[in-house]
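Lecture 7, part 2: worked example. A protein chain together with S-adenosylmethionine.
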Amino acid sequence: MNWTADQTIEALRGAGEPTRLRVLALLAGDELSVMELSHILDQSQPRVSRHLKLMTEAGLIERFPDGARVYYRLSSDPTARRLVDTVLDLLDDRSSEQDHRRLDEVRRDREAAAEAYFEQVAPQWDRIRSLYVCESAVEAAIERAAGPGPFERLVDLGTGSGRMLTLLGGRARMAVGLDLSQNMLNIARAKVAQAGVGKVELRHGDIFATRLPSQSADLVLVHQVLHYLADPATAINEAARLVMPGGKLLIIDFARHDLEELREEHQHRRLGFTDAEINGWLADAGLRASAPIALPPDKDGLTVLIWTAVRPADAKRSVA
Ligand SMILES: C[S@@+](CC[C@H](N)C(=O)[O-])C[C@H]1O[C@@H](n2cnc3c(N)ncnc32)[C@H](O)[C@@H]1O
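Predicted complex, written out as structure tokens:
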């Protein structure tokens, strides 16, 4: 949808200042906090905050809180994005060498913090992993369920350390990983870069309200996320909303189990799911599911289930 003349003028005014152009160029590369921007731009936080407020009001960027910090990113409004891309395309050099260097410093600091965090939680994950069939068997089954592609747009909801993106991102022209935790996104950024997967956008966001366009993805993944959520039905509905006609949604989670310890020790909200539960939610969301693939544990433990659901190719296409 296009903007009115007043909105366009306000947005152009919002961008029309040297520091603000630098901010737009930086946010085109990454989501950044006020503190990080202040370090990169070498300007005081109040000064940077004033610029950010103006640009937010002009609809060019958006702010979102994450724990104790507030981050900024380019607006997800398609018209605002077109305007920002056009403005940045006009510049012969999008950002100065110093801005580049300092953005890299910020990324390295984040990676160091993320690694420390990962080391702290990794032993807990290893305990859970030891309860089910080996990871490689699950991943091989996911690869088969996804199919060879190529996919136009893959969306991985609750991407965590980005494992699904490194596993399947190479089959997609464009991939988006979304997670609520900046720490996890930082790990994902590092892993995706190491794996050399191109065209991946890592976005901070909530699976319950992704703000991604409807029916825009031909492969959507929700891998080991649902059991952490208070309202899995709503998450499935949101994931399904993103699936385009002919596209598919893969849900990978545990079958119903009775390991109560996982609630206390690992913050699981749900002790797995029954096929009927997931199927009902998928049907309510307008998708057609096939029987799940079951990967039982070698001995006592957790069964991993992979549900594949498609939006029929003749389904009505909705506008985002
Ligand atoms: C066990 S990890 C699974 C990560 C990943 N899918 C994988 O394949 O390894 C669960 C992830 O879900 C994310 N998460 C939890 N609640 C979320 C929400 N409401 N919206 C988005 N991500 C969420 C967590 O931050 C975490 O990274």
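The longest strand covers residues 243-254. The chain is about 45% helix and 20% strand. Keep this in mind for problem set question 3.
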